[in-house]
Amino acid sequence: MLDIDVAALAPDFWTGNIHKWCCAARGAAWFFVAQEHREGTVPLVTSWEAPKGFVPSFSWLGTTDYTAYLSVPAALSFMAGLGWDRVRRHNRELAALGRDIVRQAVGGGPAWSEADGLFEAMTVVALPDGLVTSMESGKAIARRLAREHRIEAALFPWRDRGFLRLSAQAYNAPEEYERLGAALADLLRD
To answer: Where are the alpha helices (DSSP H) in 60-134?
Structure first.
């Protein structure tokens, strides 16, 4: 979701998940290794193809389900058809709107300006004091949201304050953030 020219960046290693932002099947990811590091980079699980070099050694890792990898071309084609710039703009604007909706619904802290613009489709919402004070309390609220409202959310403490990690994607709508805000407000009243 970031417009990055990997060739111009020239990293030694570059990895990421394709299932999150490109809508491929869960488990699909990429792994770039610069040419000078390929000879010494081997998979954790060896295969019959290992003696054939870098690409073949990662191509056949035994009995596994390759469905996620096979979904990548169709997912990339679909997302490209939507238009990468259009999707990035949509997601950035929707994440900001969602942040504002949820913050208003829960009476959260001030806008977290340090996080603005760090990632196109993600932001954080500062939660009211005392709501999330540990990883355990964040997970407990997340479990309640899932059980009672069928909402998946990530809540965590950082520097003596609780935060909600908020994401946006082409398939999300403002109503989903309104529903999340209302569900969190209900939990706060308990």
So the answer is: 67-70, 72-82, 84-106
Of 97, 96, 115, nearest in space to 163 by CA: 115
Domain total of the chain: 2
In a shared domain, residues 59 and 10: yes
Number of other CB atoms surrounding residue 182 within 10 Å: 16
> What residue has token string 């070099």?
53
pLDDT (tens, 9 = 90+) of the chain, 190 residues, equals 778 888 899 999 999 888 888 889 988 988 899 999 998 898 888 878 888 888 888 877 777 788 888 999 999 999 999 999 999 999 999 998 999 999 999 986 665 555 555 567 888 888 988 889 999 999 999 999 999 999 999 999 998 889 999 999 999 999 999 999 999 999 888 7
CA distance 96 to 52: 48
Phi, psi of 146 (to 5 degrees): -70, -45
Q: What share of the chain is helix, strand, coil (3-state, %, to 5)?
A: 50, 15, 35
- The domain in which residue 110 lies consists of 84-189
The H-assigned helical ranges of 1-149 are 6-9, 18-21, 54-59, 67-70, 72-82, 84-106, 135-149
